[in-house]
Amino acid sequence: MDFALNEEQEMLRKMARDFLEQECPESLIREVERGDKGYSPELWRKISELGWTGMIFPEKYGGSGSSILDLAILYEEMGRAMLPSPHLSTVVLCGLTILAAGSEEQKKEFMPKIANGDLILALALTESDPSWDPVGVTVRAIPDQGDYVINGTKLFVHDAHIADYLLCVTRTKDGAVTEEGITLFLVDAKSPGLNYTVLKTMADDKQCEVVFDKVKVPRKNMVGELNGGWSTLAKVLQQGAVMTCAEMAGAGQRILELTLDYVKTRIQFDQPIGVHQHVQEHCIQLLVNVDSSRWVTQQAAWKLSEDLSCDMEVAIAKAWTSEAHERACWRAHQVFAGVGYTTEIGVLPLYTRRAKVAQLYLGDAAHWRKKVAQQLDGWSLEMPKGKAFGI
To answer: Least C-beta-crowded within 10 Å: which of 71, 90, 155, 245?
Structure first.
């Protein structure tokens, strides 16, 4: 497989990098961290005007019809710049779900507004047992005079406090097969009975607890079929996982650049520290982790773009990149030593804190390694917990 980007993709990368270097400096990232929203509305408007919020959607819904691979290239630059935005929540996790399973009426209503940056959406999936599998969905949606009433609590919902709508994953039927009985609803974020609490996280990325207290939802807001929502959501979670991997690859690349610059300019005993073999080993391992993450991510993104079977490739990408990015951050910290932990003057801690969130979001390495094991020919799907690949 040729990993080289074509001319249009190179232009996309350069345009995104130039724009983010100008519009998303470290000062803005720190300002957003201190704020309540978790993103910059002004910057969100600008990236919407550039077409970033609609590029993955068909032209008939206000998009430009770009591929998943194109989007991954953009996400790598977003990760490199640590862009704080609800793009993943809105465009990928919710927008692509509506595109895949929504009615034509829902697509016409929501897709152009998402593409224009006029709507922000959040995926409400995980609960007190933060599983990314259907077994973890216990929040109920109960029929009520032709509509539905949702009760329960969702946790770790990114961007819920700024959302116009929540895409809520509910259980509408119990059964032996947990994938059955999952139904998706678009819930107006201002509905009576909804309560939000922003959780304190190490990355200050504004994850929320969302309590549904007898929240009434019209039946027309059901996305996809009753009891058939998981198959659609599973594919979208794969797409979201690959975008998260692309963000980590981009962040890792920037960390590598910062580290190489530091070892060339940090002078000790009248020579740069980069001349020392032990420091060089840290840089080599950092490079290995960054480049390997990029290659497995691009392979998964390419297969998604071509609509090829890619369960194995996506699982490998997220399992590997989650831990490889953490290792890359650790190697950089070894080189920077004490200054690498100085939050007031150093940018590295900003990347490291976000790395931990990305590692866990949409499933940690153990979650995706289990999926790798399930893809291996002849491997039992009923694996004893703790026996496969360190799970």
So the answer is: 155
